[in-house]
Amino acid sequence: MDFLDSYCRNPRRIAEYFVICGLSENPKPYDLSKVITNAEEIIIPEKSVDFTDFPEPIVDIQVTGNEIPSFLKFINLKEKDSVPDGFHVIRRSITGKFKANIEGRIGDEVYLCYRRGRDKPPITNISMFVDNGDRSLRPGATKISKTLDGKNANLRYGLMHPAYISYSRASASSGIDQLAVIDMCIIIPSKQETCPPAFNKIPESLTSNPLVPYVYLCFRKSLIKQHTIAYEPEILFRYHVPPMSMEFDHAVNNQTERDSLAQDQHQSLADSVNYESDEPIDPEICQVANFCLPWGASLESWSVEQDCPQPNHFTFVLTNETSQRLYGVAFTFHEPYDVKNLDKDQCYRLGVDPEPLFPSRTATDTSTSPLHSTDELDPEEEARITARQKHFLRSRVGDRVVGVTKTMCLLSRWSFPVAFANFLAFLYSRCYPAANSDPIPLERYLAYFLCEVPFPDQSTPNILVELCAAPILLQLPIETNASSSCEPFFYLLSQLGVDLTINLFVHMLTEQKILLTSVHHFLLTQIGEALTSVGVHLLGGVGYMIFPLQWAVVYIPFIYMGHVQVIQSPSPYLIGVDSRFFDFFRMPPGGGGVTYVDLDTKNFIPANCPGQIVLDAKLLPAEPLKELRTTLTRLHRQIRELHHRRSEASTNFLLKCLFTEPGSELAQSELNALRLRTDIGVRVKEAFMQFMARLLKNYRAYLIPVRDAERDQLFNSKGL
């Protein structure tokens, strides 16, 4: 296809802005005063609000008789087992009202205990293992088979198949971005206790005796970072894509223009160009930076024995007062920090030995003092560290490595989450770890993607940009919701399952307060987009003016902690937030009428409002609901099969794709997987569309004109 001809017919731009956020030359400490003031009612009492404070993970310091380490131990208080030093015994359930006895035999008092620390690789998962002969432990998992005094730790005492608690551990070289278990608790559902927010409930009961209440183990996972300093994030570079033109002399590779664009960082992103009357209100610089780096621009350090932090991507949505949306795709990564800029206070806070950076005055030759000494390391060990740290080696100080967070972001009026994420990942792979191996500068890639790749139209609805094996597929957006793909519906069903998806649908139709949490920010926006599309756009209307359904209330699929007070809003909303929210905050007093859903654990806590009817699938018509559930169940089965094939293959697909040529077998495989996800998403959306069509059939017949209706009756509820 002729690109120039495409521009003449379709002047839309793929993106509005390209932005780089990070740590400025003169950074300011991260300001928490507004957070503390505005969110005072939801701050956990006696909790210090410090976003760089990460809890210690649960670790293993005990050894059983068969030399298998175990982080969890059974304590039999009746037989006076001694509690190991540093262990915490779970004596009470989550409410503190009941004993957390997990032993089913009458008269026994057996409890769980654990220890936190950083001296061993942390625990990453906990589950129940039933030894029925057909199942085996997951690779790398360990079961707790003995109590402290050497007795059998079988939880199914007297039954045919024994059951044990099992756990998995991170590798010794796991990085600071590893998710690990940081807390555990016991709940007793028969005592009206529920799984706490952000916790994962093990579905099997720890007790099997029908004469005692069933008790369940819940655990929570979070990051295991330790040495972090947060600063106010700032825009380091911004580029506003100009209007489409017949000429491309304005491309980003003009160094003079790039420098001029980066000078004034205190104005709106669109101060330099204003060319469309219907263009969304441009976000302020600080707002974009806070969304791109929601925890601030951070200096972080890790051991030379740990893997480097992996880059990650996520999406967010900026909305103005007229409900116009600007979609952002952020790609966050670490890059080596110039350790010569560290002061002594930063060294102490990062766990870095300041001596190599600030040698004593008695040193004979300070000018040649190395930042790291290799005297104690043999060549083989030094080579192993070099291979692990790669380009971060230049920011090594002794046995620590210092990195700084940075984000590349594309802002667009259209939603291209996968394509933008893969393009930004491609830029990262070419311009950072492999900067010396690619002669093409970053500006040329940007000019090609932002100014030369045509926008999809009716004649060419799919534009495939072949830069690497990772699929950069631009699909024609749907006019009603600016979405370029039905992938959000795939993630919705994949992450939540059939029942929870339908329950959320009911809450969307009835305009409830919905709070989504996840440690994966990408999922928050994807599922938020799917939910608003299900509740708003399935009737085939134009734009957002759809009768009778319209999500006209607050919609923030991902909010950074600086504005977390918005969850106290009295009006309905759909808001997504990082799961670390519960490290520092709690739900509004009395629950605030908020329905809570954790996307990682499928933990669903409906709003507890006195006098309000229970909102669930039973409110929906039986026959259409049955068809909807049948269709979603079939599609969910296909999703599980797709995940199973993926888990059996290689691990880091994105990294592998970035260094693989387009047109290869891997590239075709990834493109097929993308299209399969989109196809499943389309069918999920169609299932809801068919349901809505049946639900709203003859809807007008049940409407009562305002003039003819009684004052206390505006809708004929009997028609339902």
From TrEMBL:
<dbReference type="Pfam" id="PF02141">
    <property type="entry name" value="DENN"/>
</dbReference>
<feature type="region of interest" description="Disordered">
    <location>
        <begin position="358"/>
        <end position="380"/>
    </location>
</feature>
<dbReference type="InterPro" id="IPR005113">
    <property type="entry name" value="uDENN_dom"/>
</dbReference>
<dbReference type="InterPro" id="IPR051696">
    <property type="entry name" value="DENN_Domain_GEFs"/>
</dbReference>
<feature type="compositionally biased region" description="Polar residues">
    <location>
        <begin position="361"/>
        <end position="372"/>
    </location>
</feature>
<dbReference type="GO" id="GO:0005085">
    <property type="term" value="F:guanyl-nucleotide exchange factor activity"/>
</dbReference>
<feature type="domain" description="UDENN">
    <location>
        <begin position="241"/>
        <end position="720"/>
    </location>
</feature>
<keyword id="KW-0344">Guanine-nucleotide releasing factor</keyword>
<dbReference type="GO" id="GO:0031410">
    <property type="term" value="C:cytoplasmic vesicle"/>
</dbReference>
<dbReference type="GO" id="GO:0032483">
    <property type="term" value="P:regulation of Rab protein signal transduction"/>
</dbReference>
<dbReference type="InterPro" id="IPR037516">
    <property type="entry name" value="Tripartite_DENN"/>
</dbReference>
<dbReference type="InterPro" id="IPR001194">
    <property type="entry name" value="cDENN_dom"/>
</dbReference>
<dbReference type="InterPro" id="IPR043153">
    <property type="entry name" value="DENN_C"/>
</dbReference>
<dbReference type="Pfam" id="PF03456">
    <property type="entry name" value="uDENN"/>
</dbReference>
<dbReference type="InterPro" id="IPR023341">
    <property type="entry name" value="MABP"/>
</dbReference>
<feature type="domain" description="MABP">
    <location>
        <begin position="55"/>
        <end position="223"/>
    </location>
</feature>
<protein>
    <recommendedName>
        <fullName>UDENN domain-containing protein</fullName>
    </recommendedName>
</protein>
